[in-house]
Fold this sequence. Notes:
Chain A is an all-alpha fold.
Amino acid sequence: MTDIQRSNWLHIGVVIALACSFFILPEYHSGNLARILVLAVYAMGYNLLFGYTGLLSLGHALFFAAGMYGLGLAMQFFDFNPIAAVIAGLILALVVSICVGFLALRTTGVAFMIVTLMFAQAGYLTILYFGEYTRGDEGFVIQQADRMVGMIDLTSPMGRFFTALLLFAICFFIIAYIVRSGFGLALVAIRENEERATMLGYDVMRLKLQAVVISGVMSGSAGAAYALLFGYAGATFATVQYSIFPLLWVLLGGAGVTIGPLIGTIFMFYLIDYSSAITPAYMLIAGLALVLLTLFAPQGLAGELRRRFLPWLP
Amino acid sequence: MASVMILETKGLSKSFGGLQANTDIDFKLQEGLITALIGPNGAGKTTFVGMLCGRIPATSGQVFFNGENISALPAHQRIRLGIAYTFQITSIFPGLSVAGNVELSLRRAQKLKTKDIGAAVQKVLAQVNLSDRADQVAKDLSYGHQRILEIAMGLAQDPKLFILDEPTQGLSESEVEEFIALIKSLAGDTTILLIEHNMDVVMKSADHIAVLNFGELLAEGTPAEIRENKSVQSAYLGTSEDA
């Protein structure tokens, strides 16, 4: 089997395994998994920019929130149906990521982190400022009756899970395709040595902007799906915390590995879930686990897997 | 046959703050030849070629490539016109395989179908004797091999003008010999501008030599002419004119 065939089977296999898990896992866990899949889409969007292109953004919550509010406000005030509202969310995320990318990419390194962080903060404050419409921190609920796509009830466990899985699968395959393409290789080139990439004739600025936009729209699609599937949009999702989460998920799972974001999101979700069952000071346990993981698997779980056993992991 | 100029500079200057690195350089590069650019350390050679390929913005002056004024073009667009540049300080993609490094260069420069890329990469690696290291991660290569990989990336671009900034630094004697043979085989189709400290390499390979000193073009000519040039001797070899 060639590496490409292996990678194809891996990606298809993961999606099939996830689909089967819905029928095997108890309802509590399949419910969790629906949430994890949506968040993993967010992490995959982040991974394209951070793991492959080497750009560390601290403002991705802005894109997530753009998708979420694009969808939420369109449904709330303009009575969009869910499909049209998802498109509205994606368009808003697209516009925001083009603007942020265009401005923030004039900086590099630490300055890029700070600029993206500031944009996200400005976004968060904007949501609070227009509290009359957005309901600020309190947020608003998207009514159950509105969350129907044809005959599919997105509030049912099955409708929710498979919608989440559909979005995950689409994004997962897109990422798998990108990282194997010339475009994906060029992004890695930028991560590895930006100046050399320029001196090979790559238009680094343009490639980076494309990466920001794809990453931003994917993050926005996760935000839109989150609001739609779980029926709530709130300013909490635009806070710094939600910019840090995808970074953590990607670092833990494996930056620059297609499967890393999913693994990282599952790991972090259950780490918090189980440790909070043991003690209210759950961050103590979670924190220790994170420290140990960064010490012994600095490339993340999937990164370590690639280093030791599966060098072909894309 | 009238000689054709592939590259020309007019009044090219660069100053870093108060330091004048290059002053008013009028330079012509003849197509198809190997031209060596020599000069003492700090003479401004790297700055000069940096301005040719757009890596370093010029303070004033113009650069013409194939008769076209490219002074306003950013680096990546100049590269796309057919200029390749290898760095003085090795600059490769450390985390990628040797083949991956060359592939990146090939994909940008030549429109190849995905299925043909593997063979094209192998062909380039064979040219520089790196075939058996294709799958090795570039950062694990020895310094000399990294230098050779960088040359391979330039070859993969199939450039019209190939600028090499001290390519033989860190190469073993046999590798230097192979390098000389390689660039001589390229000359004709490719114009080569070589910055080099190793006089043996310069004298063996160059058709034409230009000497920079204190940021100014001191002399130009064939190797024999340069060897006889008194001001070059004093500037470059440190001998005084009356010695």
